[in-house]
Amino acid sequence: MRQKGKIKAWDDNKGCGFIQPLIDGKDIFFHISGFPSRRRRPEVGQLVTYSLGQDARGRVRAEQIAFSADQIRTSVQAGNKGSHFSIWLVSLFLVFMLLSVMFSHLPVEIVFLYLGLSIATYVLYWMDKQQAKNGGRRTPESTLHLCALLGGWPGAVFAQQTLRHKSKKESFRNTFWVTCIVNCAAFAWLITEQGQQLLQFLGDFL
Asked: Which of 74, 86, 126, 202 has its Cα between 20 and 30 A from that of 25?
């Protein structure tokens, strides 16, 4: 008999957590292997259905876990809105960067720098997702945030949307958007007189 519950705790690095039954009862342990379909990563607060089973030691755990239909519909609607905003923001930034290079005397190398960092960041996201699927060593979130901060955030946005990786975890996304804002602010500063002087100094030094 299938039961309904809500994910109460989840450790993405260990791949396990606890489900709180909607009807009174003790929290149920679950492992990522309990999801027959692993196209989405679990998150705290998500509604799921599951069956009760036992591990090799006879301990109760959740098996055949699936996201509830209501949860899936809500996630898809929220994901579509977030996806449209993210892609719109990246497009706007790219247009702004190209205009800045054309009219503000920014070196064209800036464009290639962002492109290279974005490609490298996309690859890191892809590798981290493969490791998550296979239970391997994960890329630290601090590394992903550092790449975004340095200028790879457009690639991170495309990775989140196309790979569906790190696109739902609220704490990660909050920090991610802070790195995007800081990077955009730093880029805008480069257009100012002080920023132009710094770029000139670096150009002469190099």
From this structure: 74
